[in-house]
Specification:
Elements (H helix, E strand, L loop, with lengths): L14 H5 L21 H4 L1 E2 L7 E2 L1 E6 L6 E5 L5 E5 L16
Antiparallel strand pairs: 1-2, 3-4, 4-5
C-alpha cells in the first residue's frame, strides 16, 4: 500500500471521490476528483460477502453541511444519502496500491 496525501494508509472515501460532487457532505477541494471506477453505479454498491450477495450501506468521510450529527453515506443502490451518525451502517475502507 502507498499512503494517501495525508499519510494515511487506510481511510474512508469522501463523497466527491465516490460521486464526483457533494450532494450532502461539506464541500471538498476542486482538486478532489471522482475515482474512475465509481463513475459506474455498480462499483459504488457494496456486497456483504455472503452467498446471497446482500447489498449494504456504507459511511463516507463527509459530515453533512450545517449538521453536527449527520454524515454522508452510500445507500444499498449505490446512490448518495445522509443519516445520523448513530445509525449502524457499514464501513468500506479505501487503500491505494503502489504502482510499479
Amino acid at each position: 500500500m502507498t499512503p494517501f496525501d495525508n499519510g494515511d494508509l487506510l481511510r474512508l472515501p469522501t463523497e466527491k471521490e465516490i460521486f464526483g460532487e457533494n450532494y450532502y457532505g461539506e464541500y471538498e477541494s476542486q482538486y478532489v476528483k471522482q475515482w474512475k471506477p465509481m463513475k459506474k453505479r455498480r462499483n459504488r454498491m457494496a456486497f456483504d460477502g455472503s452467498k446471497d450477495e446482500n447489498l449494504q450501506w456504507y459511511w463516507l468521510m463527509n459530515k453533512v453541511r450545517e449538521s453536527a450529527a449527520d454524515f454522508a453515506f452510500v445507500n444499498r443502490t449505490g446512490n448518495a444519502n445522509a443519516g445520523n451518525a448513530s445509525g449502524s451502517f457499514g464501513v468500506r475502507p479505501a487503500f491505494k496500491i503502489k504502482n510499479r
